[in-house]
Design brief:
34% strand; 7-stranded antiparallel sheet; single chain; 281 residues; globular; alpha+beta
């Protein structure tokens, strides 16, 4: 009888802790491994017209895995000579980096170099697209809209978001850096999908006239937050001059809530925005 009572007590305690701590949101950005993506939750959006929240974290903490694993990210062309930009955590520690050019088809890049103090990396490819994207060092302000394009969860999709402020991101684990970032709230995903934005890391963030104002580096899906690099990194890494030279896509009509997904499809089809594969240990 006593053993039955003890067993019952233990069962109640175990059940309590399961209910209490399952799905606890620590409200920290997560870099979820690119595959697989189990049990997707609904995405959290701030509706158009609703009052914007404030970024209430003085420092955004991001913990990296101790070593690189197989995974995917996003990159985009910034000149006509095969130079692409991505996030450092996409390629750092990889044994090999490749562009995904089709089902089961990979093309190895010539080289990849990470910035020391930023979640930012430069990839050199054998060749680049005929047109590339234009960088700017002008940071967006609170309330400005932006458009993030790439391969979240390894699939082509695009995100519309709005700036809520600036903060600092601190990465620890495989490397340690502190850097300024832009905080955004999600407005919309096209096509819709739930859960993580993992896989869009390194992807471009456009303003409404088609200039690149950052790269995606982290997300907190349960809070509906996305974080991007501060655009001054483009000047720090010496990419501005080449970005202004050569042919650029036509954004005469601007980028809007109505057309950002069709623009994303066009840029991916021309490999101006490309999917990146990291071969880990």
């Amino acid at each position: 009888m006593r053993r039955k009572l003890e067993f019952g007590l233990y069962a109640i305690l175990i059940l309590y802790f399961i209910v209490r701590y399952t799905n606890v949101d620590l409200e920290q950005p997560r870099r979820v491994p690119s595959t697989p993506y189990p049990q997707q939750e609904d995405a959290i959006f701030v509706p158009d017209g609703a009052q914007l929240p404030f970024e209430n974290a003085s420092t955004v903490e991001v913990k990296l895995e101790s070593r690189a694993y197989n995974g995917v990210g996003t990159a985009f062309a910034v000149d006509g000579k095969g130079t692409y930009v991505t996030a450092r955590h996409v390629v750092d520690g990889c044994k090999g980096v490749y562009f995904v050019t089709g089902p089961q088809r990979l093309e190895q890049v010539k080289s990849f170099v990470s910035a020391r103090k930023r979640d930012f990396a430069v990839i050199k490819a054998e060749r680049g697209p005929k047109t590339h994207l234009l960088l700017t060092v002008k940071a967006p302000a609170r309330g400005d809209n932006g458009y993030m394009m790439g391969y979240p969860q390894g699939k082509a999709a695009d995100v519309r978001a709005t700036v809520i402020g600036k903060t600092e991101m601190r990465s620890s684990g495989r490397y340690h850096i502190r850097e300024p970032v832009i905080a955004w709230v999600e407005r919309e995903r096209k096509p819709y999908f739930g859960g993580s934005l993992g896989g869009i890391s390194g992807g471009p963030v456009f303003n409404s006239v088609g200039h690149i104002i950052g790269t995606v580096v982290a997300g907190a899906p349960r809070r509906g937050r996305v974080y991007s690099t501060h655009p001054k990194v483009f000047d720090e890494t010496g990419l501005m001059t080449a970005s202004r030279e050569g042919a650029l896509p036509d954004f005469t009509e601007g980028i809007t809530a109505d057309n950002f997904d069709s623009i994303g499809r066009s840029l991916r089809s021309g490999r101006i925005i490309a999917q990146v594969y990291c071969k880990g240990e």
